[in-house]
Design a protein that fits this description.
Elements: H1 15-21, E1 27-32, H2 38-50, E2 53-54, E3 57-58, E4 64-69, H3 72-87, E5 91-95, E6 100-103, E7 108-113, E8 127-131, H4 138-145, E9 155-160, H5 167-172, E10 180-184, H6 194-203, H7 206-212, H8 230-233, E11 234-235, E12 244-250, E13 257-264, E14 270-278, H9 283-297, E15 302-304, H10 309-317, E16 322-324, H11 329-340, E17 350-353, H12 359-364, E18 369-371, E19 377-381, H13 387-400, E20 403-404, E21 415-416
Parallel strand pairs: 1-9, 1-10, 4-7, 4-8, 8-9, 11-17, 12-15, 14-17, 15-16
Antiparallel strand pairs: 2-3, 5-6, 6-7, 12-13, 13-14, 18-19, 20-21
Helix pairs in contact: 1-2, 2-3, 11-13
Length: 417
């Protein structure tokens, strides 16, 4: 076994990051705005723990730690990459297929997705870092706390932008004894440019800005989809076969673009099987992704945001059956609501694949009506935090909204009641 000094590479931290990293609390959260360096702070703390040092306390080594993220993509693109960036001088072996790292001092770090909480049961751990934890089901925290028993009481810390008043707010947003939370706005990060911060301030407003930029826990009033319930509308087991598979597409670049793949089962329920949710992807890349999804799922029709007919034409030029969606917002919202209602057999007609659909449930829990100055809600949705729900609306309207005729040369389709 190789020896390793319990130090970290020279890094640059701002004060709030450093305070969090060196805090001795056993249950800790860095709840902050986007771009605030949350994952970086979480990774530095993970490296310290793997080296036997955490907030000035000696931790037995070798030890075992686990890093989790909501999806494999988030895990690989953020948590895994950030840890490797700062920890390489202390790493002995990297196993990419198993997503494990062996440190020079014998400590091990496991990287796992949190989409299926029961799959996290296994190794005894000394520490756990949960990245983007606000996206987790509450069961994840319960499972992981039960794993912290390798060398007696363990440590865990969470890094995330808040997503409404969920389980993270319950534990870390109310000054609870035994829990400590660092709430840090985006603009506290001195390594961000003024241009980036100004772009966020012009993009986000109201409660959504308070959540995404200030890092504050928001209780969204006037929810558009109060019918949504994670316990009712998310499932771990999918049907093996579907009558037909469709997709909804919402364009985006600076905002996220989304493709949602949905299958109709033999009871005419819509199962959202896959969610492609990415910022800064060009239309050419979206076409390639759509082709890959077509090959995987055998999609019959892609109902697309009709505001970009050129994009629809590019998809059609590559052999995809892309058509302009019905974008009547009020009618589409009602169509989604109808599918959320529990039926006589106890099941709704819209269900989400828990392991592959992450952003849609978050948006369901935050999408709300715009308020007037007197505090009353209007009939107009707040135009933010809605990209997944827009693609879902196109998908549901495509299935339930009427009969489709052949598209014209722009890809637009006509609808009949």
């Amino acid at each position: 076994m190789k020896s390793s000094a319990a130090t970290i590479p020279k890094i640059h931290l701002y004060q709030e990051q450093a305070d969090f990293i060196y805090d001795p609390c056993e249950a800790l959260a860095f709840v902050a705005g986007i771009g605030s360096g949350k994952s970086y702070a979480g990774a530095v703390r993970a490296l310290l723990a793997s080296q036997g040092r955490l907030a000035g306390q000696e931790i037995q080594i070798p030890n075992t730690g686990m890093v989790t993220a909501p999806t494999y993509r988030m895990l690989k693109d953020a948590s895994w990459r950030t840890f490797l960036q700062i920890a390489r001088p202390h790493i002995d072996k990297i196993n990419k297929s198993e997503m494990t790292i062996l440190m020079n001092n014998g400590s091990e770090v496991f990287f796992r997705t949190a989409s299926e909480p029961d799959n996290l049961r296994g190794p005894n751990l000394t520490w756990w870092w949960g990245d983007e934890a606000a996206y987790y089901a509450p069961e994840v925290q319960l499972v992981m706390i039960g794993r912290l028993r390798e060398h007696g009481d363990g440590y865990y810390w969470l890094t995330s932008t808040p997503k409404g008043r969920n389980w993270m707010w319950r534990d870390f947003g109310r000054d609870q004894a035994g829990y400590k939370c660092y709430s840090v706005p985006t603009w506290k990060n001195p390594f961000l440019t003024d241009k980036y911060i100004r772009s966020l301030l012009t993009k986000y407003t109201g409660d959504y800005a308070y959540q995404e930029i200030e890092g504050g826990f928001v209780s969204f009033q006037g929810l558009i989809y109060p019918e949504f319930d994670r316990g009712l509308h998310t499932r771990s087991v999918m049907p093996e076969q579907f009558k037909e598979v469709f997709a909804g597409v919402d364009w985006g670049y600076s905002n996220a673009g989304v493709i949602q793949v949905g299958g109709i089962d033999f009871d005419n329920r819509l199962w959202i099987l896959h969610e492609e949710y990415v910022e800064r992807r060009l239309i050419e890349d979206w076409v390639r992704v759509a082709q890959q999804l077509q090959e995987t799922w055998h999609i019959s029709i892609l109902w697309c945001d009709p505001s970009e007919p050129d994009y629809i034409r590019k998809m059609r030029d590559k052999g995809l059956n892309a058509v302009g969606a019905n974008n009547t917002v009020s009618t589409g919202i009602q169509a989604v609501k109808n599918r959320l209602v529990r039926q006589p057999d106890g099941m709704p007609r819209l269900l989400l694949n828990k392991s592959a659909v992450v952003h849609t449930p978050i948006e369901f829990e935050q999408y709300h009506w715009r308020k007037m100055r007197d505090g009353h809600s209007t009939e107009e949705p707040v135009k933010s935090n809605d990209h997944a729900l827009d693609s879902l609306r196109y998908l549901v309207m495509g299935i339930d909204g009427g009969q489709r005729s052949a598209p014209n040369d722009t890809g637009a389709a006509s609808w009949a009641g």
